[in-house]
Amino acid sequence: xxxLLLSTVxxxxxxxxxxxxxxxxxxxxxxxxxxxxxxSWTGFYIGAxxxxxxxxxxxxxxxxxxxxxxxxTSGVLGGGYIGYNLAGLFNNYQxxxxxxxxxxxxxxxxxxxxxxxxxxxxxxxxxISLKAEQNWLASVNGRLGISYDRALFYAIGGAxxxxxxxxxxxxxxxxxxxxxxxxxxxxxxxxxxxxxxYAFTPNWLGRVEYRYYQFDNFTLGNGxxxxxxxxxxxxxxxxxVGLAYLFSAPAPVVxxx
Length: 257
Prior knowledge:
Elements: H1 2-22, E1 43-61, E2 69-72, E3 75-87, E4 99-120, E5 127-148, E6 151-171, E7 177-199, E8 204-215, E9 218-220, E10 230-247
Antiparallel strand pairs: 1-2, 1-3, 1-10, 3-4, 4-5, 5-6, 6-7, 7-8, 8-10, 9-10
């Protein structure tokens, strides 16, 4: 009798476990967590920058045995830039695991570059004071970079323009004023450089950039009796930091389940 009772209890326990296993689960489905949206570099942007401009003006007096002279025209640089980025154009291609970003950019910078140096005309003994100035520069460039989420490493280059100005004052060996000649001219050239940009937020971009500028020669003077033409050549090395606002497309809406 005792064995029969124990067998009945065991059978009932097994039947109850099987019945519980067939009941629907009351456990809730896991909460869906959307992945963070991927940052996009595509869009128009506008910004301002400031930095140092390390300029050089090289002068060569034509028609004489006077060697070329150079003067340092370094100063402060500051201005603005505007451009457009296009990312995802080459989705099938990656460089070192980064996405390709292409774009165009224009800039205008004010400069505080000027310097004066003095020398003696080896042919006449005249004392000459030469002041070189550069007040602004501008450029239109293409950009090509590699993005790693919110960081962009890029190369930049294109066409550039600047205003070169030179003023020469001539004194005789007796320190008597002979004459003064000045010329200001907008000259063209090219620029090339690179930098790194980082998106602190979906819209605010900070950058650090280096740029080199090379401009065409221009001539001061017209071969007057007391003045031989002076050929000028301008170059600039710039380092600047900038902050821009990116007018990017609205972030995609992520569905929640």
